[in-house]
Amino acid sequence: MQNVDQKDTKDKHDPLLVLTESDRAVSLVSDEGFKKYGNRDSWKNNPPAEGLRKYLSAAIRHAKLGFEIDPDGGLPHVYKVLWNAQAAVWHYEKMHSLLGKPVNTVHPMGPR
Predict the structure, then answer these.
(1) Residue (of 93, 26, 97, 37) closest to 59 by Cα position
(2) Which of 44, 76, 77, 88 is least surrounded, with the fewest CB atoms within 10 Å of its CB?
(3) Which residues contact residue 93 at a Cβ distance below 8 angstroms, ignoring those fewer than 6 apart?
(4) What is the DSSP string of 19-74?
């Protein structure tokens, strides 16, 4: 009898493609946030449009400071770019889910 793998992976993302260094950076920022706010998921409580704007703006602010160490927690700003970008993507996806439309059909901030 032939051993055939029945697990369907078509059209599924591969989490193994996430760089270990990026994964570690996001985890460290998440731990820092937990120590500061006492909750790992409070950032999800923002309305999607507000969360998207808030975390995208934070990612850009941290990016402008680049490789310097953030005095708020002691991690490099570049780590916080990743974490905030991830949070922005979560809110972006949530907004589209609530609209009931695929991600590529509607600008989340409305018509331009």
Answers:
(1) 26
(2) 44
(3) 103
(4) -HHHHHHHHHHHHHHHHHHS-SSGGGGS-HHHHHHHHHHHHHHHHHHTTSBPTTTS
